[in-house]
Amino acid sequence: MSDWIPVTERLPEESQSVLISQGSYVDSAYFNKAEKTFRIYGDSILVHAWMPLPQPYQPSPEKP
Protein backbone atom coordinates (compact mmCIF):
# COMPACT_ATOMS: atom_id res chain seq x y z
CA MET A 1 0.00 0.00 0.00
CA SER A 2 1.11 3.55 -0.64
CA ASP A 3 2.26 6.07 1.92
CA TRP A 4 0.04 8.92 3.07
CA ILE A 5 0.14 11.97 0.79
CA PRO A 6 -0.31 15.35 2.54
CA VAL A 7 -2.92 17.51 0.79
CA THR A 8 -0.40 20.36 0.91
CA GLU A 9 1.84 18.33 -1.43
CA ARG A 10 -0.67 16.85 -3.87
CA LEU A 11 -4.37 16.15 -4.45
CA PRO A 12 -5.78 13.16 -6.33
CA GLU A 13 -5.52 13.62 -10.10
CA GLU A 14 -9.10 12.56 -10.79
CA SER A 15 -12.45 12.30 -9.03
CA GLN A 16 -12.24 9.08 -7.02
CA SER A 17 -12.74 7.39 -3.66
CA VAL A 18 -9.64 7.44 -1.44
CA LEU A 19 -8.59 6.82 2.17
CA ILE A 20 -8.35 10.05 4.17
CA SER A 21 -6.71 10.99 7.45
CA GLN A 22 -7.81 13.71 9.85
CA GLY A 23 -5.33 13.35 12.71
CA SER A 24 -6.07 9.97 14.31
CA TYR A 25 -9.30 9.52 12.30
CA VAL A 26 -9.14 7.40 9.11
CA ASP A 27 -12.05 6.82 6.70
CA SER A 28 -12.83 6.60 3.02
CA ALA A 29 -14.05 9.68 1.18
CA TYR A 30 -14.82 10.84 -2.34
CA PHE A 31 -12.54 13.46 -3.88
CA ASN A 32 -14.40 15.83 -6.22
CA LYS A 33 -11.80 17.14 -8.67
CA ALA A 34 -14.01 19.95 -10.02
CA GLU A 35 -14.56 21.37 -6.51
CA LYS A 36 -11.18 20.20 -5.12
CA THR A 37 -12.99 18.88 -2.04
CA PHE A 38 -13.16 15.60 -0.13
CA ARG A 39 -16.68 14.47 0.76
CA ILE A 40 -18.24 11.92 3.08
CA TYR A 41 -21.99 11.37 2.62
CA GLY A 42 -22.17 14.61 0.62
CA ASP A 43 -20.53 16.75 3.32
CA SER A 44 -17.29 18.56 2.52
CA ILE A 45 -14.59 17.71 5.08
CA LEU A 46 -11.13 18.96 6.05
CA VAL A 47 -8.45 16.36 5.25
CA HIS A 48 -4.79 16.31 6.30
CA ALA A 49 -3.61 13.46 4.05
CA TRP A 50 -4.93 10.85 1.65
CA MET A 51 -3.90 7.67 -0.16
CA PRO A 52 -5.40 5.54 -2.94
CA LEU A 53 -7.67 2.70 -1.92
CA PRO A 54 -6.05 -0.74 -1.94
CA GLN A 55 -7.14 -3.30 -4.52
CA PRO A 56 -10.17 -5.38 -3.46
CA TYR A 57 -9.55 -8.78 -1.90
CA GLN A 58 -9.22 -11.59 -4.42
CA PRO A 59 -9.16 -15.12 -3.05
CA SER A 60 -6.45 -17.30 -4.53
CA PRO A 61 -7.67 -20.08 -6.78
CA GLU A 62 -8.13 -23.39 -5.02
CA LYS A 63 -5.55 -26.02 -5.83
CA PRO A 64 -6.89 -29.40 -7.06
Keywords:
64 residues; mainly beta; six-stranded antiparallel sheet; elongated
Give a written overview of the molecule:
It is a single chain. The protein has one domain. The mean pLDDT is 91. It is 0% helix and 44% strand. Strand 3 and strand 4 form a beta hairpin. With 64 residues, it is mostly beta strands. The protein starts with a strand and ends in a 12-residue tail after the last strand. A 6-stranded antiparallel β-sheet has the order 1-6-2-3-4-5, with no helix packed on it.
Largest sheet: 6 strands, antiparallel
The class by helix and strand makeup works out as mainly beta
- Please give the count of helices: 0
Helix-residue proportion: under 10%
Q: Which ranges are low-confidence, i.e. pLDDT below 50, for 5 or more consecutive residues?
A: none
Q: Judging from the principal axes of the Cα atoms, what is the shape?
A: elongated
Strand content: 35-45%
Within the largest sheet, what's the order of strands?
Answer: 1-6-2-3-4-5
Rounded mean pLDDT score: 91
Q: Determine the oligomeric state from the structure.
A: single chain
> How many distinct beta strands?
6
As for the number of domains, it is: 1
Order of helices and strands: EEEEEE
Tell me the distance between the termini: 31 Å
Radius of gyration: 14 Å
